[in-house]
C-alpha cells in the first residue's frame, strides 16, 4: 500500500479500534472537522442549485458527507467509556449526526 493510502487507512482504523483519545475524536474530528465538511457540502449544494444544477445533484452534494458522519458517530460511541461522560459524548454525537443531516 502506498504511504498516502496507508495513512488514510490508519486514520480510519485507529478511530474504529478506539486507539485515538475520545477528546480528539469528539472535539477535533467530529465537532470541528466534521462540522466544517458539512458546512462546505451545504454551501456547495446551495451554490449548485443557484447555478441551475438539478435538485438531485444538490441533494447528492448535501448528503455526500453522510458516510463520514456515521463513521464519526460510531467512532465516538466505540471510544466513549461507559461512565456518565461517555454517555454524554454518545448523546451529543448522535444529536450532532441528526442535526448535520437535517440542517
Describe this structure in words.
With 103 residues, the protein is an all-alpha fold. Helix content is 83%, strand content 0%. The protein has five helices and no strands. The protein has helices spanning 3-17, 22-50, 55-63, 66-79, 84-102. The protein is flat.
Q: Which word captures the global form?
A: flat
User: Helix count, per DSSP?
Assistant: 5
Mean pLDDT: 96
Separation of the first and last Cα atoms: 38 Å
- Residue fraction in strands: under 5%
Provide the low-confidence segments as ranges: none
Distinctive features:
mainly alpha; 83% helix
How would you summarize this macromolecular structure in one to three sentences?
With 103 residues, this protein is mostly helical.
Write the layout of secondary structure elements.
Layout: H1 3-17, H2 22-50, H3 55-63, H4 66-79, H5 84-102
Helix pairs in contact: 2-3, 2-4, 2-5, 4-5
Amino acid at each position: 500500500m502506498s504511504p498516502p493510502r496507508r495513512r488514510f487507512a490508519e486514520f480510519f482504523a485507529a478511530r474504529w479500534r478506539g486507539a485515538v483519545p475520545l477528546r480528539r475524536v469528539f472535539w477535533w474530528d467530529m465537532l470541528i472537522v466534521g462540522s466544517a465538511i458539512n458546512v462546505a457540502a451545504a454551501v456547495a449544494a446551495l451554490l449548485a442549485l443557484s447555478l441551475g444544477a438539478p435538485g438531485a445533484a444538490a441533494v447528492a452534494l448535501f448528503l455526500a458527507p453522510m458516510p463520514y458522519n456515521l463513521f464519526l458517530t460510531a467512532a465516538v460511541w466505540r471510544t466513549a467509556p461507559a461512565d456518565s461522560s461517555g454517555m454524554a459524548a454518545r448523546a451529543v454525537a448522535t444529536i450532532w449526526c441528526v442535526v448535520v443531516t437535517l440542517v
